[in-house]
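[agent] plan:
  1. take the single chain provided in the ticket
  2. run structure prediction with default settings
  3. attach structure tokens to the ticket
  4. add a short note for the reviewer (M.T.)
[agent] executing step 1
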Amino acid sequence: MRVPIFNAGINVTIKKMVLIVSLVGLAGCNTTRPITTESNVEKPYVHIPRSYVSMSCIEHEGVSYIYDFSIEEPIASGPLGGRMVHGSSCGGLIAAGYALPKTWHPGMKVKVRWKPNGRDYVEKTTNIMRYDAIGDLYVHFFKDDQVRVVSALPYPESKNHPILENVTVPPPEEE
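[agent] step 2 finished; step 3 output follows
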């Protein structure tokens, strides 16, 4: 079968035009951010050694079923700020891989977001309680939308867990 030269010329021209449009489009993506006084200021980077830990949540007396929860490190709290880890309902451990600093330091805050039974999502920012040894991350939900976050090696059923399961009032927040 013979292809007319006219059609072959159109096909080559179309291919060239597609190539040119693609190159122009890609060149547009290769722009650099304009330099401003704000971008010239370098912030010192501080390396914070972290370990990835599993997480879980505990519903204390007076709390309705938690369908869904997430933990987010606020942006102001460090170099990995804004990173969110999502869990499902309270129950077993979730191997979600939250990057927890190996050493506790004052001011470690997280934003907790959860969906109680029959209600809209609730969101609170709280401190991570002091820990000496890194362990799994546990989110404790109390009545009146109070929340505490702890890192602990013992499970919540243990008498050595920082917040016992039968406690109905959250411990005071530490700074």
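[agent] step 4 note for reviewer: The longest strand covers residues 50-59.
[agent] ticket updated
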